User: Which sequence fits this backbone?
């Protein structure tokens, strides 16, 4: 063998070894974390405007409702998933200092279909769940949420889709109206019968806290670390809530009148009671959640007018909500891990 050939062979072996080491250091810790639910200290993140993978609106579900009947490879109907998933881990170690790029998260979930939809392959899920996230300029938090929540929902054997509802422009933020938009837009794509409305900064610490719908509207995040895992007051109904389609229509959705921070959750609590239902909560051990630390976003300042609107929840419920919702869809982009719906919801003076 010539000296040149020996040199090239040695160089090839060296490059192969280096690539193997790089693969091990980057992807094995991620795989271990996905398997265990415990963040690995070997994972370090960056978030540099990562490229989002998108596709055409009809990328995988030309006829969304054709996917309702879950079938096996041979065409036979799958059994219904058990009430309690066999994949549940229980308490989870959530690391909010985790730094991971969106590309890494995409790599970790090849089984998620474009648009952020997943359903179990071995059984038919009991509910079709749309997760609705009101959003504006919180990309880093979104990456962390996607990393933890896709594995969380998959361990619960959920048939779910993730919808990030982004308020277009720089007008005052309206979280409640964005959630109404998410409800309306998700129903255009799939026969969802359960809706989980989640803030982008809440990560559950126990996967026995099933993100699904119950006999009454459910408050999922009633034990958050920021508040020392205590329920601050009985009417608190924020962070993460779940409504069946029927329940949400019964209260006419959220009020569209809450511009700026505060009040829409308490007003929704009053709507639930006025509609003859009650708010359910998991026990405070299962409901333990972490909140990603952050400062209040510009354009979401506290609004003193919201306190006045709260007082008239019962009177306003029939005329302010889903039946008075108006908005303009600016763009819909189906990323690999979620569907981004950018909407113009107007401004406060339009009310």
Assistant:
């Amino acid at each position: 063998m010539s000296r040149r050939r020996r040199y090239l062979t040695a160089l090839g072996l060296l490059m192969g070894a280096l690539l193997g080491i790089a693969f091990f250091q980057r992807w094995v810790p991620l795989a271990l974390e996905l398997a265990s639910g415990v963040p690995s200290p070997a994972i370090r993140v960056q978030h540099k405007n990562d490229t989002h993978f998108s596709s055409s609106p009809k990328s995988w579900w030309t006829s969304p409702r054709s996917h309702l009947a879950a079938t096996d490879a041979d065409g036979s109907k799958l059994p219904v998933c058990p009430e309690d998933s066999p994949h549940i881990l229980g308490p989870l170690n959530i690391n909010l200092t985790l730094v991971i790029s969106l590309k890494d998260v995409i790599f970790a979930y090849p089984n998620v279909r474009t648009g952020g939809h997943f359903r179990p392959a071995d059984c038919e899920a009991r509910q079709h769940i749309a997760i609705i996230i009101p959003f504006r300029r919180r990309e880093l938090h979104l990456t962390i949420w996607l990393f933890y929540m896709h594995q969380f929902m998959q361990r619960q054997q959920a048939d779910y889709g993730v919808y990030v509802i982004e308020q277009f422009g720089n007008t005052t933020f309206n979280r409640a109206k964005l959630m109404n938009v998410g409800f309306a837009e998700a129903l255009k794509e799939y026969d969802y019968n359960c809706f989980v409305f989640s803030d982008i900064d809440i990560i559950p610490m126990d996967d026995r806290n099933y993100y699904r719908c119950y006999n009454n509207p459910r408050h999922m995040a009633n034990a958050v670390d920021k508040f020392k895992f205590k329920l601050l007051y009985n009417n608190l109904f924020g962070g993460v809530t779940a409504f069946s389609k029927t329940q949400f229509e019964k209260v006419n959705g959220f009020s569209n009148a809450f511009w700026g921070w505060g009040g829409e959750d308490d007003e929704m609590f009053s709507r639930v009671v006025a509609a003859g239902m009650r708010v359910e909560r998991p026990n405070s051990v299962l409901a333990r959640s972490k909140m990603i630390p952050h400062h209040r976003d510009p354009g979401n300042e506290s609004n003193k007018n919201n306190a006045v609107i709260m007082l008239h929840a019962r009177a306003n419920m029939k005329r302010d909500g889903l039946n008075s919702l108006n908005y303009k869809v600016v763009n819909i982009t189906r990323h690999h891990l979620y569907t981004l719906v950018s909407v113009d919801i107007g401004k406060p003076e339009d009310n």
Summary: Residues 3-36 form the longest helix (34 residues).
